[in-house]
Design goal:
- This protein is of the alpha+beta class.
- Helices cover about 25% and strands about 30% of the residues.
């Protein structure tokens, strides 16, 4: 099932997501639906809040960004906890399915260590670097209620103000289904 992507301005994107109890959600079905939704929108990551579910779950598939390297990395992250973000910060242009048409350079640390459960409820603690670390950091931010635009300069935010205001009113063109913000 392909979900509509929740747009910038919806409160679900600004709330810290709740931990998932193994009995609470059919993780395999939700993961399948999230991958289908992400692929349909042309993304490399998707967090549950982006489909209106305030749960600590996100998925990544770095394949489109790592075609010439070691191949893609496809993973489900449940109840993730960032343990460490280290290494040199580097800037890279990021975008977000919840903020269509907006791309800006964001600086992030090169290497992370993260603890999480996979979709089989196996607990893992792993280290990631480079583009994989960046994608994970971006999606992890979503479950913390943080958006990539929170990492850009005040000047760039001012330049984007009217565009973001339009997105928050549902005035956006996207090649995938979107859901206008639900104001609460």
């Amino acid at each position: 099932m392909i979900y509509p992507i929740v747009l910038f301005g919806d409160p679900v994107l600004r709330k810290k997501a709740a931990d998932i109890d193994p009995e609470q959600v059919d993780i395999k079905e939700l993961a399948r639906d999230m991958f289908e939704t992400m692929y349909g929108a042309g993304g490399v990551g998707l967090a549950a809040p982006q489909i209106g579910k305030p749960l600590r779950m996100f998925i990544v598939d770095s394949t489109p960004m790592e075609e010439n390297e070691e191949g893609g990395f496809r993973q489900v992250f449940i109840n993730a906890e960032m343990i460490e973000e280290v290494g040199e910060e580097w800037a890279f242009e990021e975008g977000c399915l919840s903020i269509p048409g907006v791309r800006e350079d964001v600086s992030r640390n090169d290497t992370i260590t993260i603890r999480y459960f996979d979709e089989g409820w196996n607990e893992k603690e792993e280290k990631f670097a480079g583009i994989r670390a960046r994608i994970i950091q971006h999606e992890y931010d979503h479950i913390e209620g943080v958006l990539f635009t929170d990492h850009i300069s005040p000047f760039k935010k001012r330049l984007l103000k009217s565009k973001l205001a339009g997105i928050s009113k549902g005035k956006v063109k996207a090649d995938y289904r979107v859901k206008a913000p639900q104001k609460k």
